[in-house]
Amino acid sequence: MPDSGPSLPRWRLAVSASAVLVAASALSGCVPGPSSRAPEGDPIAAARALPNAGGVIKDGARSCGEFVLEQGEDVPEEARDCLVAASVAGEPAELAWSTPTSEGDPIVSFATVGLGRGIQVYTTDAFDRHSRIEDPTSPGAGWSGYACDDPADLFGTGDCDPLVEG
């Protein structure tokens, strides 16, 4: 009868190692990611209420609408046309919209016309759990912006310059 002594400890070692790997894999899947910072209710109203929004968001004399969009939705064409018409008439107007990240966190944008050059668009990622901002209500909470000559250039694809708030 062959000696099976050394095989048994290797077998136990293999089973133990496998159990440790399975447990480690299970535990690594349990580590929570960052929690959502999405505001309850209207993300556009929440963005307007951010402490640093006063210097970024300009209330237009006319609203071209506020839209909380779902994944894959786009700002309605009528709202875009409203901004262009206001710009051509030299009247101030504003359009606001929120689009979700792939995790569902709102990214909120505000476009204004009639207050200077073409169109100005400001966007905040203050409610995005992956924006690396510790506190979405802090004064430095994630705003970016650009100005474009073409008032129809809502997404900054043409002749646009970044805006820096001071």
UniProtKB/TrEMBL annotation:
Keywords associated with the record: Signal
Annotated signal sequence range: 1-28
Name of the protein in question: Lipoprotein
